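Quick sanity check, Copper resistance protein:
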Amino acid sequence: MMRRRGLAQLGGLTVVATALLTLGLASPTQAHDELEKSTPATGSTLEKLPAHATLVFSESLGPDDLTITADGTRLKVDAVPGKPATLKVDLRPVKPAKTVLLEWQAEDPHDGHESSGVIALHVEASHATGATANANAPPDDSRLITWVTVAARIVGYLAMAVFVGGLLFLSLLWPAGATERRSRLLLGISVAAGIAAAAASEAVVVWRSSGGMTLREALNEDFGRVTTAMALLWLLAAVVVAAVFQRGEHVVRELPWRVAALVVGAGLIRTTGMNAHATQGAQPTWGAAAEFLHLVGISAWVGGLTIMTVCLLPRRSIAELERIVPKFSTIAMVSVLVIVSSGLILSWQIISSVDGFWHTHYARVLFIKLALFATVLLAAMKSKSWVGRNLTSSTHRGSPVGAFIASVATETVLVIAVLGAASVLVTSSPGV
């Protein structure tokens, strides 16, 4: 028995040490590339469309990092010698139109973050350039890449939340749940999904470069190191979950395992936040801290809700619900306060640094996220009301749990929708 406990402690310390070394690989990402100006400027009225346009970004950007299309035709992008932040776009293949919309999408070579926008040019002469679309133009795969990027981000967010919040729920509130088949399966799926999302994020960057960047070159960039660190942390997460598979309730009560799970979970939250907009404002340190707390609150709430909905509630044990749900209700309340307060800081960071923020696509998605969040709070209040009526007095032990299950399930689905909106925000530029 003593030997097994010693091995468990050694294993926990090994996971902690490896996680800390992995975090050392991931350096904080730099500010994201944003379009500072274009020539012609968006909204310009032109006698005729020029042969070329120039786009100036806030940081250096290569031709392979920018995708720009007009009416479905992908346009050729060239570098401007001596100006690493300026790119030249060939407009000759653009089809004649009174209003030409140049849809651009740039990927930051440092952190892999994608910015996007539209440049609208009004042309008085409908013949514009007089040229037809270039049949040899490269295929436009930007939409597919965008969907893959957003999907990878959603899966990664959800996997992190279920892993971190699920382990928190099991270790603090329901250790017996570690022996449940559903709990183990859910944790295993979260790890597999996290590894897949990390791999997809790095593959998208190599894909967007059209073969111009190898995997080895990607690892030399900040985003490559962050993504690699995230993938390695997910492998360590697999070790943590494997211990749950092997020893169940006993291991989640042990301090070495809890420390290992805490370090790995904190590492996943930190690396996930590195590619967000938190460091773009005037106070990047505050932004990074607020992003970390924001993700901690979301993980504790979403992961706990998921474990409770999928694993605990189907047991329909009033005794377990009386013991566990009020405690989780307290954790959920604290999580909401953390989410709201940190969200206010993050909003201040971004809004104060972007002109005309309220008229951007980013703002519209943010409002959708806030509306969903408000709806989640209403569902949570209904769940809390049921807890107050039925789990605080022994006279209601026989109360049906069907209404509570429906309320919690609705709350869980809505929270996942909030995560989806958050993923779209992270992959969008605040300035457009």
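Posting the structure with no commentary besides this: Confidence is low (pLDDT under 50) at residues 126-140, 394-398.
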